[in-house]
Amino acid sequence: MNFHLQLWRQKSADTPGKFESVEAKEITPDCSFLEMLDIVNNRLVAAGKEPVAFESDCREGICGTCSIVINGIPQGPDRGAACQVYMRKFKDGETIFVEPFRAGAFPILKDLIVNRSAYERIMRAGGFISEHTGGAPDASAILISKPVADAAMDAAACIGCGACAAACPNSSAMLFVGAKVTHLNLLPQGKPEAKKRARAMVRAMDEEGFGNCSNYYACEAVCPAAVNASVIAKLNRDYIAGEISEAVGAID
Amino acid sequence: MILDAKIPAGPIEQKWTNFKNNAKLINPANKRKFKVIVVGSGLAGSSAAATLAELGYQVDCFCFQDSARRAHSIAAQGGINAAKNYQNDGDSVWRLFYDTIKGGDFRAREANVYRLAEVSRNIIDECVSQGVPFAREYGGELANRSFGGAQVSRTFYARGQTGQQLLLGAYSALSNQIGLGRVTMHEHTDMLDLVLVNGHAKGIVTRDLLTGEIKSYAADTVLLCTGGYGTAFYLSTNARGCNVTATWRAYKRGAAFANPCYTQIHPTCIPVAGDYQSKLTLMSESLRNDGRVWVPKKKGDNREPQDIPEEERDYYLERKYPSYGNLAPRDISSRSAKEACDDGRGVGSSGLGVYLDFSDAINRLGRKTIEERYGNLFEMYENITGESAYERPMRIYPAIHYTMGGLWVDYNLMSNVPGLHVLGEANFSDHGANRLGASALMQGLADGYFVIPNTLGEYLSTQFGGPKITTDLPEFKKTEEEVRERVNRLLSVKGKVPVDVFHRELGLILWDECGMARSEEGLKKAIAQIKALRERFWKEVSVPGVGAELNQSLERAGRVADFLEFGELMCLDALTREESCGGHFRVEHQTPDGEALRHDDKFADVFAWLFKGDENTPELVKEPLHYEAVHLATRSYK
Lengths: 252, 638
Fold this sequence. Notes:
By secondary structure, chain A is of the alpha+beta class. Helix content of chain A is 36%, strand content 12%. Chain A has 2 domains: 3-110, Ubiquitin-like (UB roll) (Roll), CATH 3.10.20; 117-247, Fumarate Reductase Iron-sulfur Protein, Chain B, domain 2, CATH 1.10.1060. In chain A, the strands form 2 sheets. A 5-stranded mixed beta sheet of chain A has the order 2-1-5-3-4. By secondary structure, chain B is of the alpha+beta class. Chain B has 17 helices and 19 strands. Classes of the chains: A alpha+beta, B alpha+beta.
């Protein structure tokens, strides 16, 4: 198969970028999208040109390193991360636009690579259960019903890639933060800090410059881990309870 | 040199307790004075960094990814073993210990493995307390599944994403400590060398992957938690970024590299489809709980699987190993698949594949149950191959998955270089010549949460009152200079061949000659080919761009350069070990029915290799393995 690529090229964070036309010729349909980019890059290198920079690691859809937008869709068409997109999904001769995630809180570093450290800072504000190694009771002492464990797992499946914020017209990170809060706040172990966690993570999110949710659901549509937008409702509920609780000086 | 494993005295059940009772403690005020460098943020690295910070040490943690949470532990699917015996099916610490020793084909260090089985129980407690959403039964109890090489159900799991959930647990503990200011996290930072001061590991030299800045960090001790070297084979189930650089650089600074030829080939991966491929995808071993492995009885039978009648199918694992059946250990299952394919009975267009068939399980349990157990794996399979495993059997073939070899460590997880500790897959100690499924997660977390916090004091207690270590010392400046030279050398080759081409070629050499079957002739040939390839690399490689910028070609070139040296050591180790054991199968050493033939009289040792200069053969030092608690036996899963 042959494709006309429009690749975003940008030397560094503070230089302007632009789309550049690159031909991807004789590509096997069973090739993954990133393998197609590998082939294109190796051809560029062999011709003495600089390859396009993009990040990937596990290439099985779980590490969340992928940060590209294919034809306007963060992480590309279909469910799963960009590394799970296969060339057989495209038409022969198609023009494909490839660009980095677009969100103010994810500045572009080079070509298709963005800086997602904002998510790290949100996690450090409250994305954990405060406990220390060695202090745990026997695992069987805590009973958790299957539906609760399953719902926590659905939220915990988030791969932290940032596609939600990149897809959102408000660049909101609420699907990500909602997933974290839902996972931990649903479980009995996470209850003692539930309100504090929601408060701290939402505040950190605001500080990073992410917007708010306006029920557009673009995040849910692109989420490679199929995290449901209902986590945002859970986040809002716990956040409001947390704010009220702090405002009235309640013990939470 | 003699490698002293420092195994505590006493009967095996008492060794860890005895050790802890007599361990050197560091008081809380003094812990705050010690700096610890942790390289790598997978299960071993994140758990160690978080736990040591909780104890009060000043920790610097490094990873090459953009987030600690992306380390390759995240991709582990199936589960984590623990001797909880929640199922009341006869499990115990002893049984997990014995299964692991036997699974490793009696080439692991007894005392370390027993300790691993012992602390396995604490790991599950710890993870649950962090909020890891393990699978549960309706009443709220923890669920278990069985895994290869065991006859009990002791594997805890979180769907097919157990590694992800365990790493997120460790990462959340780490994030907490970073937020509290007790850990300084350095993402996008590659360790390129180890710094020794008076023979002790006291720091590292790194390259900032965003700016290209080369910089040193000093500490009182260094922990390498940098994973395995499976990516030496190019195609593997490992992540693209996995590399041997940190451990290889430590080796070149004097740390012994143990059993590099012990590599694990996982039996259930999606077969290779073409030369464009960048990685192989694992289909979790847990699938073998419900899937049945078979090939046609007739050679070259290319009928569709559903057209092959039951009596013309060879369920070879069930036939050869009736008591373990489809749950035979990984090395044995892989080799059996290779035998079937070598015999001309492989399936798929390449003939390098066997069927993993779920039709019986779907008939017995219903599609919904199978979907619940393995839904994400089936989806992944369909996405990659375009075939639905609900409708036709999966095609699978073995692929490189894990490496049991690694830097040599003593009972305290310290290498022969004082101050250099090695945890998780990066060390060699617990899995012998073959690792059982669901044991890697267990070992990574055991090392980080429970072993190193107790053993680190043995070294640090000897370091009071020494001279202050700072990066101003000439040792740091010298190592930095050497790193810069190496980077510049890569940039100045200015050839025309992309790095990937060399990596792929090295991978093919290793897969053909140092893969599932190895021979003296093949290994000698491989060593010569690797030497020639290395020479070509340094004449022809193309590394565009400059050093002081985000330069992915340069990152890869450095890693491949190290693999090109390391691959030779792997082959040398395989050549020297003239026996078959676990994942190391020398065709010259097999029983009449094709099983691995060990030579305990000559090879019940750890082979540890010491660097003696680029032009010289490395020196082999042996650590004899003393089996006091178990008897060396021929491994049988029949």
